[in-house]
Amino acid sequence: MPLNRGMMALAVAGLAFAALAQQSGSPAPPQGPEPNASSASPRRQVDESALRYFASQGDTRRVDAEIARLRALYPDWSPPADLSQLVGGGGVVNDPEVDRLWGLYTENKFSEARAAIAARQAADPQWKPPPDLVTALDVAEARKRLVNASDNSQWRTVLSIATETPSLLTCANVDSLWRVAEAFAKTDQTGRTRDVYTYILTNCANPAERLGTLQKALTLLDEAQIADLLKYERKSGDYPDDFSAIRDELARRRVARASTDPKLTASAEDLAVVERLAESGKEPGNALLLGYYSYHHKNPEKALSWFKTALDRGGSEKAAEGYALSLRDLNRLAEAEAFAFEWRDKAPENMQVYLDVATALLSQDPPPRLDPKVIVRVIPAVTKARSAGAAQALGWYSYNTGQISTAREWFEEALSWKADDEPSAYGVAITSQRLNDRARFNAIVSQWRSRSQRIADLADGIVRDRTAQATPQPAPPSPVEPQISSPRAVAPAPELPAPPPERPRRIEETRVAAYDRLVVQQERQLQGKRPAARRGASRQACTTTRDPGSLSAPAALNLGWCLMEMNRPLEAAAAFDHAFTLGSPAQREDAAYGKSLAYLRKDLTGKAAVAAAQAPQTSARRTELSAAILAQRALAAYRDGRWPDVILALGERARVVPEQNDLMLLRGWSYFKLGRYEDAARIFRAVQQTGYSDEAGAGLSAIMEITGQVRQY
Per CATH, is 505-707 categorized as 3.30.70? Predict the structure, then answer.
């Protein structure tokens, strides 16, 4: 049998009391019958003032609720058959002032009602407000405080208010019950949350509120707890439940988990539910879910169909990502590349998919005959993303179509982006061999012989079939074969202001020359940075590969500096890291300094900055490392065409050390690229006055050609 209103309040209040007792360590107060329940005292006069007021207002909803409340409190009481008796008085003195107080209450003017009660009592000390009105005001004000605490995530305050005002916790205040349930969940008491929801489903009759309770539970409870709550579904009676939407959502969740984990398999029943939802709905979400489930469970054809449905319904980046991946898995690579290209800039994941598809397209053996426009659009995307894998694919495509020099440049570019990429190093070795460049071939062999058997075999003259990356003797490109540009000839698309109009080729060559010269200069500066006490140490310490993990801190430091002299910075970084772990404070400082230089040598400025901060450095070293890191960032931004970032990095560096002329030239050319000709001219004139007349003059001439303003520059 359902509990009456008073017992319902005490039942849920007991939950709150018990939870708070656990938190405070104090015992929970005993539960018992409601103090004013009819079983605790003889029959008393029923306060019908609220019922009379609601009847006078014609508010049938509140009349019905008040009749239910009074019946729960006073089982022997029956409402008058004719409610008009209440409006006319019906033997009870009708007090207009009480009606006005109830009016303030129904309008949520609680403070005004309190003030009016106080004023009436001051004027008439014998007068007492109706008890139900006082209780109603108490509950309403508590509800307001509870809602405010809940909205501000003050969960323990919510539980405290609920404990102090158990009359809030009834079916008449389901929203308050929901908030208490959430407060339990947010304080890691999901068992109490389930208890509150169970109370609602056991005792409350409103179908919308019962369904809402399950919907709330979906966000706070696990699947097993929700399954337990579903057992309370009422399938008959005046107001039957319909919890089918909850069961559908649970099925959808199970399919969602399996859609990202190939090891999980959704049941046929759950898949049928989601397919029904996808076919009957107009939103892309369920079609997208089924697309990824099919894709990760090796059914790309079905996945493609669902992704197409999702796209047709407005599905955006994620649907496009899945569609391109499905085309790739179906080996429809040309179609996949064209589609993925259109979506490449929508999200980072879409760009990665485009690069993956382009890599697969270029890596086919034998190489396909591609439309030149495909190559033209692949190259800027690869350069902008600095994708070593895609650059390597361009290298092999160039190699297999007879463009050996271009192939080597792409392999070199890939290796500069990913220094430990053995396939790219192998590409550099084999193309250097084909180009008869013994110096570069010997250098790459020296660096990789101990780490790559096939590079060692290549040096030893052993002919092997290329398995992981076949290297057949390429034929000269046919007239229909696209010529691939060198990576240095490709500039990524600018991200901010549009570039100035087309300029003569010699202007661009002058700008690139300034960058190339500065790169060489920066590399020389980094190679020269080493503590004086370490210079001249024997190179025998690192002629063979050694594991630094077995060395003492001084030996690991010595190995690190030796590797730096051998231009093996990533191996040096590992040695310095080991020395940092074991060493004394002075050795840790030296190791952090060395590791920073090693990462700078490979243009890993983020890692260099982290390493520099690992141990205190002298003022001179701090300045030196800060300047080098900011210079490298400026160079990287310049290379990528991020002109505003060049200016920002150089501005930061100028606050650390005076700006050198070559870096000022980069600043000038960055202003030039942004169309800020006045700023560019100011920089070029300043450089020109220090003796760099040719380079600065070229910049001024470029501005003059663009603007046509001879006198100004």
Answer: no
Q: What is the pLDDT of residue 22?
A: 41
pLDDT tens figures, 318-375: 999 999 999 999 999 999 999 999 999 999 999 999 999 999 999 887 778 888 888 8
Distances (CA, A) of 403 to 389, 399, 474, 481, 483: 19, 5, 9, 11, 8
DSSP-derived secondary structure for 561-630: HHHHHTT-HHHHHHHHHHHHHH--HHHHHHHHHHHHHHHHHTT-HHHHHHHHTSS---HHHHHHHHHHHH
Quick check: 535 pLDDT over 90?
no
Please tell me whether residue 713 adopts helix, strand or coil conformation. coil
Is the separation of the CB atoms in 259 and 271 below 8 Å? no
The answer to whether 363-489 and 505-707 have equal CATH topology is yes
Name the token pair of 601: 């040598």
**What is the per-residue pLDDT for 469?**
42
Listing DSSP states for 645-700 in one string gives HHHHHHHHHHTTSPPPHHHHHHHHHHHHHTT-HHHHHHHHHHHHTTT-HHHHHHHH
Q: Quick one: DSSP state of residue 478?
A: P
Burial class (CB in 10 A: 0-12, 13-18, 19+), 237: exposed
The tally of CA atoms less than 13 A away on the side-chain side of residue 703 is 27
Q: State the CB neighbour count (10 A cutoff) for residue 19.
A: 23
**Residues 407, 486: Cα–Cα separation, whole Å:** 8
Of 526, 588, 521, the closest CA to residue 554 belongs to 588
Whether pTM > 0.70 for this model: the answer is no
pLDDT tens by residue, 612-634: 777 777 777 778 777 888 888 88
CATH number of 363-489: 1.25.40
Task: Indicate the range of 243-247, 252-256, 397-401, 487-491 predicted with least confidence.
Answer: 487-491
The pLDDT tens digits for 483-511 are 676 675 544 433 333 333 334 444 555 55
The CA-to-CA distance between both ends of the chain, in Å, stands at 96
For the chain, what is the largest distance between any 2 Cα atoms, rounded to a whole number of angstroms? 118
Q: Which residue has the tokens 């970032």?
A: 645
Whole-number average pLDDT of the chain: 78
With tokens 């079983």, the residue in question is 39
Q: What are the distances in angstroms from CA 179 to CA 21, 90, 145, 560?
A: 19, 41, 12, 61
* 3-class secondary-structure state, position 312: helix
- In the chain, the amino acid numbered 16 is A
The answer to whether 641 and 493 are in contact (CB under 8 A) is yes
Domain boundaries, the chain: 363-489, 505-707
pLDDT at 536 over 80: no
Answer yes or no: are the C-beta atoms of 540 and 513 closer than 8 Å.
no
